[in-house]
Amino acid sequence: MQFKFRIATKVFFGEGCLNKNKSEIAGFGKKCMIVTGRSSGKKSGALDDMTKALEELSIDYIIYDKIENNPSLENVADAGKIAREEKVDFIAGIGGGSPLDASKAVAVLAVNDIQPVELFNNAFDNRPLPIIAIPTTAGTGSEVTPYSILTRNDIKNKMSFGNDDIFPAVAFLDARYTESLPYSVTVDTAIDALSHAVEGYTNKRSTIMSDIFAVEAISVFGECLDNLLTNKIDYRIREKLLYMAMLGGMVISHTGTTIVHGLGYPLTYYKGIPHGRANGMLMAEYLKFNYEAIKDKADNILRLLRVGSLDEFGKIMKKLVNTELSLSEDEITLFASTGAKHRSVAQNPRDIAVSDMVSILKNVFKVW
Ligand SMILES: [Fe+2]
Predict the structure, then answer these.
(1) How far is the CA of 193 from the centre of ligand 1 (A)?
(2) Ligand 1: distance of its center to the CA of 276 in Å?
(3) Is 326 exposed, middle or buried (0-12, 13-18, 19+ CB in 10 A)?
(4) Distance of alpha carbon 183 from the chain centroid
(5) Dihedral of alpha carbons 123, 208, 260, 321, sign
(6) What is the pLDDT at residue 109?
(7) How far apart are alpha carbons 234 and 52 in whole angstroms?
(8) Strand bridging mode 170-173 / 10-13
(9) Bridge partners of 129?
(10) How many CB atoms lie within 10 A of CB 302?
């Protein structure tokens, strides 16, 4: 039995946790840069809570609220330049995966005068600024991971960077911040969290420790499944989803993802499919392809979700993602070859070739 286990983030969970624990922020310095999207911070109430806490602590702050969905290198470079010029001491990321991942890049760029593409070297002369993460979706788990996923227009794909210094120092998880999410975003992000747990659990790098978190996350998703399907999502369910998403982040912090994410990224880049929804489209076929190699774990996933078979799981995912997509032969070839370059290929439970990825995509999508 061998494992390494480390989550370098101090997590506070529960209603009002930011206000109750704002003294945690006091030691990070005199000036904060809040990194957020155009609306999620404001709509969720998280931005107001954070600025109020900073004011009460007499900490100066600036707000950068121009983080795009699936932030590009250009986007984080712009924010990073401002952080450097303004000499901020720490970063607060508020939002879904996009602002949280962007805040990690900004934390590096604020103290390292490098080209944004050099983020992917994963080693920096100066230690990134401390990050406070406040998720307003229950999906990414980025608040407890050392990863930042950015869009690279130069290679036409999404790509992650990260090292142990990128873990947020503190995360405040308050399900009230997810209450303003529309139904589709709630579902898409919940599926992203489920995919983190499933991909981590079935991953070649899974350990006895990461499995504890994965099993719990999948089980909690199972408890929420009927509510997700019927759009009966109250505060109690939102808390469970936020908890589950955090667990999923803790899983992939140790295992990484698999080809579900590897094949999902080109679907997001080229077809604009939201990240979690792309994963949801692929998850059942991923489990089918790998079934013999992970039989016990795949059966356990179905049991934890209270689902009878992989076919039934596929139907449920289809209902949740509710998207028909047709791809051309050329697109399938391109997406499979892009997926094959993803680092997770080596972590897939079974050896997987480009031709297998073509088959997976053809089983999922209509081909024209
Ligand atoms: Fe993800």
Answers:
(1) 7
(2) 6
(3) exposed
(4) 18
(5) negative
(6) 98
(7) 27
(8) parallel
(9) none
(10) 17
- SS3 for 49-81, per residue? HHHHHHHHCCCEEEEEEEECCCCEHHHHHHHHH
Which residues 6+ apart lie within 8 Å of 235 measured at CB? 175, 176, 179
Q: Where are the alpha helices (DSSP H) in the chain?
A: 17-20, 40-44, 46-56, 73-85, 97-109, 183-201, 208-230, 235-255, 259-271, 275-290, 295-305, 310-321, 329-340, 354-364
- Write down the pLDDT at residue 1: 86
Q: Which helix (H) or strand (E) holds 326?
A: strand 326-327
Q: Compute the distance from residue 126 Cα to the ligand 1 centre, in Å.
A: 28
| Strand pairing report for 148-152 and 157-161 | antiparallel
pLDDT of residue 128: 98
In whole angstroms, what is the distance from residue 111 CA to residue 75 CA? 17
Helix axes 208-230, 235-255, angle to 10 degrees: 150
What is the torsion angle, in degrees rounded to the nearest 10, for the CA atoms of residue 349, residue 351, residue 354 and residue 359?
-60
Look up residue 118 and give its DSSP letter: G
Q: 31-37 and 90-95 as β-strands: parallel, antiparallel, unpaired?
A: parallel
Separation of 31 CA from ligand 1 center, angstroms?
A: 31
Q: How far is the CA of 87 from the centre of ligand 1 (A)?
A: 32
What is the spatial distance between Cα 282 and Cα 336, in angstroms, rounded to a whole number?
12
Instruction: Please tell me the distance between residue 157's alpha carbon and the centre of ligand 1 in angstroms.
Output: 14
What's the CA-to-centroid distance between 71 and ligand 1, angstroms? Answer: 14
Name residue 173's beta-bridge partners: 13
pLDDT along the chain (368 residues), means of 10: 93 98 96 96 96 98 96 97 98 97 98 96 97 98 96 91 96 98 97 98 97 98 98 98 98 96 94 96 97 97 97 96 92 95 88 95 93
